[in-house]
Amino acid sequence: MTALFETGPGGPREVSPGAVHIPGWLSLQQQRTLVEACREFGRGPVPYRAASLPGGHEMSVRTLCLGWHWAPYKYTRTADDVNGARVLGFPGWLADWGRRALADAYGDQREDSYEPDTALINFYEDTAKMGMHQDKDERADFPVVSLSVGDDCLFRFGNTETRTKPYTDIRLRSGDLFVFGGPARFAYHGVPRIYPGTADPECGLTGGRLNLTMRVTGLS
Ligand SMILES: O=C(O)CCC(=O)C(=O)O
Ligand SMILES: [Fe+2]
């Protein structure tokens, strides 16, 4: 799982085996396209919502899903914890972006078989955060492709054993790609903070941070 690219300031970086950060992967135009699409998805049939965790606590991010609906901690076709509607399908263009992301991150042909079937789109307001967790409700181990637009955040990428150290703190900026697969696929990660007001308004968002992760559920 070796990345076949130059590493250097601002360039692609292998954070740990299988975890690759590519700053500025999306052009401003692509960022605006993604923001506009995410706005459109929010018009229905299922709106963005703060998911409730077992115990009643609400997550501080608002989330909308495509393909499959995720609610802690499982996937269903309908948004039973929101309004019972079936979620929108996973768009073909987004799967194309996912395959291109894998090709750029890993520099090989493995992406041909990548068929992501769910996306979790998270919107973070200034004080929102996400605790350390594993993405482990999928029944397949294909990589997770993560795209960020809007304000910068502190992204913490750790290890597969514990939610604590060792981890690497990374500043994810608008347009950045982060891919985690292979030995990094089930690593703990989280978003301890957002840096309000850091986005280039040209990205299409005037405040907050949008993150989209696409995944292969392995469900049918
Ligand atoms: O917002 C991010 O960068 C990470 C989101 C995430 O970890 C998730 O949706 O599972
Ligand atoms: Fe996650």
From TrEMBL:
Please name the InterPro entries in this protein's record.
Alkb, AlkB-like, AlkB-like_sf, Oxoglu/Fe-dep_dioxygenase_dom
Record domain Fe2OG dioxygenase: where: 115-218
* Transmembrane residue ranges: none
Q: Which UniProt keywords apply?
A: Dioxygenase, Iron, Metal-binding, Oxidoreductase
Out of the domains of life, which is the source? Bacteria
Cofactor(s) annotated in UniProt: Fe(2+)
- Which Pfam families does the record cross-reference, listed alphabetically? 2OG-FeII_Oxy_2
Q: Cross-referenced Gene3D superfamilies, in alphabetical order?
A: Alpha-ketoglutarate-dependent dioxygenase AlkB-like
**Alphabetized PANTHER family for the sequence:** ALKYLATED DNA REPAIR PROTEIN ALKB-RELATED, NUCLEIC ACID DIOXYGENASE ALKBH1
| Protein name from the UniProt record | Alkylated DNA repair protein
Q: What is the organism of origin for this protein? A: Arthrobacter mangrovi
Q: Which gene encodes it?
A: alkB
